[in-house]
Amino acid sequence: MITTINDFIQEFETESAITERVLDTLTDESLKQIVSDNQRTLGQIAWHLVNSINYLSYLGLSFDEPLASEDAPSSAAEIASEYRRLSQCMLRAIRSQWTDESLNQVVNFGGQDWHNGASLRYSLRHEIHHRGQMTVLMRQAGLRVPDVLGPTRDDWIEKGVKPYA
Ligand code: NI
To answer: In this structure, what are the phi and psi dihedrals at residue 148, rounded to the nearest 5 degrees?
Structure first.
């Protein structure tokens, strides 16, 4: 449960710096990498991560810029820049429209009651979940995965350290 706006902003900024590193590593070609036949592509998962920020606007926050589109762009640079735009939009909305008290309010969404604090926490976990899926597909697409929560295998090799299996 997130109980203060500041807690959320700090947590979001820590995570979004990592997400930006991951998104900035994508190439247009890599977006076509698929999980398996008839499953989502890396580009669709990346875009799902980005346009899920829209959901916070359905909880009563009003964004001062257009929401992210439904369809995934074919440009990796556009996905990364839309993530930055939407994130800033969402943070501006939270800072200007919610107080710590707002986090205790309950909003009915899709037939379920959601505490705003729980929704913010869910949005962080959702981003982390899909980011984890992305890094596997990025490896399969031949990209070098950036540091997410510690050095990568490539980082160890570069330092001359034998990576753990
Ligand atoms: Ni999802």
So the answer is: -105, -65
Give me ligand 1 centre to Cα 159, in Å.
Answer: 35
Q: What is the 3-state secondary structure (H, E, C) of 86-135?
A: HHHHHHHHHHHHCCHHHHHCEEEECCEEEEHHHHHHHHHHHHHHHHHHHH
CA 150 / ligand 1 centre spacing (Å):
24
Q: Does domain 5-158 have CATH number 3.40.50.970?
A: no
| 61: confidence class by pLDDT, cuts 50, 70, 90 | very high
Tell me how far the alpha carbon of residue 105 lies from the centroid of ligand 1, in angstroms: 24
Q: Cα(48) to centroid of ligand 1, in Å?
A: 7
Domain limits, the chain: 5-158
Q: Are 87 and 58 in contact (CB under 8 A)?
A: no
For 21, the token pair is 């590193």
> Which of 128, 127, 103, 105 has its CA nearest to residue 117?
103
Q: What is the pLDDT of residues 110-134, one digit of tens each?
A: 899 999 999 999 999 999 999 999 9
